[in-house]
């Protein structure tokens, strides 16, 4: 990721991050992250991908100032990540929300709003808007979080991460615990955030979801970046060309394949594109709801 | 900053309430204040009933509140850091010290509410069971600071009539001053005297009571005799005999008319025993002799006691919260309990005396190794620091004075709250904030 791609106004700059965990006697025990560099600007949705234990969460914590890097440096908005000025513009959803179980969603958001120094009127308005946005308005807003399912608690965490209208949003496994509908909503939300000009750093081990929303990805394995770049560039297969057409009569497809082979193409395949399972599932849900609504209208 | 602290403060109020800690405390305190007195029996006198109600209910209630404050403080932040719940708060603009401050203030408000409820319950019990006359509160007259140095010199002259040998006069005087200011019982040999001088308020009190407590060197409360001479600005007020029959305690009313217009009241005890076989009388300068004057009613005294008793609760909550910022809850609770135990042990002279006795065991002075010396210096030093840090609280003597019907000194109570209830906690909070900041930069 270069200065040209970020337009020269980097929201997040991490250079040469390295983290070595030491034992009680300060002997090096594990190199969790080794030489990770990231740069992101407004409107970018960056995916930090990798298997479990690859160093994603460690990298995120160094970016947030929750872990001191053994080497390298981090700047958020040109500031040290632990500075109050940087943190006022930052939203964070941790991998494990771990909210206060005895607080309701409304009280949880009020607490964090207070930590951002929001005046009471703004606090009320934003709390109500965010609870609506994550689908927790109504009676759920006043039930203790301890009574919630994992998915509902995650929604509270998402609302909390957006409370201060952040310019940089860091989401660690944001769809963890959510059902397919919830996952789609989160993905739509992430796209919206990017479209609004915010910078989103998203960590996930669910590749399909990252593929749907990210503009750039960095793939971590064993603490090192093994591949990074624009998603379209990384995934493009330059040795193949695909045509997709609608309204072609049945017999013509086979004829078209023979023409391609005569032109020198090899391994020509002709098939019908498929929906993703998620899209199919959501389509079934949509149709079911529409039928139920029509029955009720009768 | 105020909004951020307020957010933590509200959470600091909600957490103990919704975890049912406050409910459990209310049940325990209700049992202590309402049920326990029904099973205790006093000596049948109004004063005894008052002492039983005020000491034997408030004492256990304060112990419960103190333990709860300490451990609730340890639990205020520590579990959130341990289970990583604090990460979301750590990446907001709120500073670690603000987190400590808000949570501590929440605990102090809960402590204040519970303490007020306890004092109110005890007050109601007293009004129901003790005649109003017996609940009248008296204040101790304040000793004239100049009289302290006079007594130091008098004792020095009685021990070294010809002066201390080898130019050790200042060292001996310093030792005597230390003993007079502390809790040491100093002997008054047959034929010798000990004096006190008190400042009289203006106008002079309408009544006054003199209370004299003593022990004899025979190791009992009896076997001593002498007299107490009371003068006001040099004018004779009373001559009170002390006889072998007195059970270590003499109480006498002083005629108010004799004190009118005077600025100071002097009392001198003369040991009337003969030198051959007569007992010395053991006295403590700070409280063997007290002059008590009327000082309002029980309600005012309970209010002053509230201020005085809130100080140690606030300090304990601060200590717990500061240690909770640095350690996990079990470690913080253990360390906090250890520190409190050290403070309680350092309150007396036992530690110093044990080192001195050890050094002179069987009349020998065994060689002290460097480790022994280091341990002794550390122990005495730490003990002195802890004792000095909590001295403002000790000086209020709130529970003792309440039980004895003596006014809790308002100035001492206010100073205790200011120094030990606010200033020292804020220092602990700064240390806790630094510890929390360090932990937040290594949050795995």
Question: What topology emerges from the helices and strands here?
Answer:
The complex is a heterodimer of chains A (298) and B (444).
Chain A: E1 12-22, E2 28-40, E3 45-49, H1 56-64, E4 71-76, H2 84-87, E5 90-93, H3 105-115, H4 120-133, H5 150-161, E6 168-172, H6 180-195, E7 199-204, H7 207-213, E8 216-221, E9 224-230, H8 231-235, H9 250-262, H10 277-297
Parallel strand pairs in A: 3-7, 3-8, 5-6, 6-7
Antiparallel strand pairs in A: 1-2, 1-4, 8-9
Helix pairs in contact in A: 3-4
Chain B: H1 2-18, H2 21-39, H3 46-55, H4 58-82, H5 86-90, H6 96-129, E1 138-140, H7 145-159, H8 169-181, E2 186-188, E3 193-199, E4 208-213, E5 215-216, E6 226-232, E7 235-242, E8 249-254, E9 264-271, E10 281-283, E11 289-294, H9 298-326, H10 329-346, H11 350-359, H12 370-389, H13 391-396, H14 398-404, H15 410-440
Helix pairs in contact in B: 1-6, 2-4, 2-6, 3-6, 3-14, 4-6, 4-9, 4-10, 6-9, 6-15, 7-8, 9-10, 9-15, 10-12
A few lines on this structure:
The complex is a heterodimer of chains A (298) and B (444). Chain A is an alpha/beta fold and 298 residues long. Helix content of chain A is 38%, strand content 21%.
């Amino acid at each position: 990721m270069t200065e040209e791609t970020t337009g020269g106004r980097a929201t997040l700059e991490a250079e040469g991050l390295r983290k070595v965990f030491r034992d009680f006697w300060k002997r090096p025990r594990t190199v969790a992250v080794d030489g990770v560099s990231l740069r992101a600007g407004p409107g970018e949705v960056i995916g930090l991908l990798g298997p479990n234990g690859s160093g994603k969460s460690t990298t995120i914590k160094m970016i947030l100032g929750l872990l001191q890097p053994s080497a390298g440096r981090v700047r958020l908005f040109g500031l040290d990540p632990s500075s109050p000025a940087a943190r006022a513009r930052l939203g964070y959803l941790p991998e494990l929300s771990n909210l206060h179980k005895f607080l309701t969603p409304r009280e949880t958001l009020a607490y964090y709003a207070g930590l951002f120094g929001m005046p009471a009127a703004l606090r009320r308005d934003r709390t109500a808007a965010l609870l609506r946005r994550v689908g927790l308005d109504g009676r759920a807003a006043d039930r203790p979080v301890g009574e919630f399912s994992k998915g509902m608690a995650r929604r509270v965490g998402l609302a909390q991460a957006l409370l201060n209208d952040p310019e940089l949003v860091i989401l660690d496994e944001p769809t963890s615990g959510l059902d397919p509908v919830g996952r789609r909503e989160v993905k739509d939300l992430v796209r919206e955030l990017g479209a609004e000009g915010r910078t989103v750093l998203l960590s996930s081990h669910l590749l399909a979801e990252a593929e749907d929303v990210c503009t750039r990805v960095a793939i971590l394995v064993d603490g090192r970046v093994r591949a990074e770049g624009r998603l379209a560039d990384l995934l493009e297969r330059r040795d193949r060309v695909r045509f997709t057409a609608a309204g072609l009569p049945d017999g013509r497809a086979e004829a078209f394949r023979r023409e391609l082979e005569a032109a020198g193409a090899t391994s020509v395949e002709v098939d019908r594109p498929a929906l993703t399972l998620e899209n199919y599932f959501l389509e079934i849900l949509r149709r079911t709801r529409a039928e139920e609504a029509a029955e009720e209208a009768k | 900053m105020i909004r951020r602290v307020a957010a933590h403060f509200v959470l600091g109020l909600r957490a103990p309430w919704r975890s049912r800690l406050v409910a459990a405390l209310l049940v325990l305190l209700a049992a202590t204040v309402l049920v326990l007195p029904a099973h205790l029996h006093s000596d049948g006198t109004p004063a005894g009933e008052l002492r039983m109600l005020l000491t034997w209910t408030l004492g256990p209630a304060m112990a419960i509140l103190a333990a709860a404050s300490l451990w609730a403080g340890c639990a205020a932040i520590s579990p959130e850091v341990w289970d990583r719940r604090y990460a979301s708060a750590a990446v907001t603009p709120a500073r670690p010290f603000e987190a400590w401050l808000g949570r501590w203030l929440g605990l102090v408000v809960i402590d204040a509410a519970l303490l007020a409820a306890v004092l109110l319950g005890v007050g109601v019990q007293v009004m129901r069971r003790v005649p109003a006359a017996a609940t009248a509160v008296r204040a101790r007259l304040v000793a004239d600071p100049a009289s302290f140095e006079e007594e130091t010199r008098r004792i020095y002259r009685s021990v070294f009539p010809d002066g201390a040998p080898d130019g050790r006069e200042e060292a001996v005087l310093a030792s005597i001053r230390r003993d007079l200011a502390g809790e040491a019982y100093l002997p008054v040999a047959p034929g010798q005297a000990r004096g006190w001088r008190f400042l009289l308020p203006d106008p002079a009190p309408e009544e006054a009571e003199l209370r004299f407590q003593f022990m004899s060197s025979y190791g009992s409360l009896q076997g001593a005799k002498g007299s107490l001479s009371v003068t006001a600005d040099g004018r004779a007020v009373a001559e009170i005999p002390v006889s072998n029959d007195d059970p270590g305690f003499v109480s006498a009313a002083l005629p108010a008319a004799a004190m009118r217009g005077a600025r100071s009241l002097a009392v001198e005890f003369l040991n009337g025993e003969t030198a051959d076989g007569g007992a010395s009388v053991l006295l403590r300068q700070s409280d063997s002799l007290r002059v008590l004057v009327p000082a309002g009613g029980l309600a005012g005294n309970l209010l002053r006691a509230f201020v005085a008793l809130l100080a140690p609760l606030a300090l304990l909550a601060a200590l717990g919260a500061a240690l909770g910022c640095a350690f996990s809850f079990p470690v913080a609770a253990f360390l906090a309990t250890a520190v409190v135990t050290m403070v309680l042990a350092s309150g007396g002279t036992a530690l110093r005396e044990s080192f001195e006795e050890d050094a002179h065991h069987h009349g020998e002075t065994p060689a002290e190794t460097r480790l022994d010396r280091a341990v002794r210096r550390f122990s005495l030093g730490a003990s002195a620091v802890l004792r000095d840090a909590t001295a403002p609280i000790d000086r209020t003597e709130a529970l003792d004075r309440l039980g004895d019907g003596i006014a809790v000194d308002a100035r001492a109570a206010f100073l205790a709250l200011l120094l030990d209830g606010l200033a020292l906690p804020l220092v602990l909070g700064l240390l806790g904030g630094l510890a929390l900041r360090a932990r937040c930069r290594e949050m795995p």
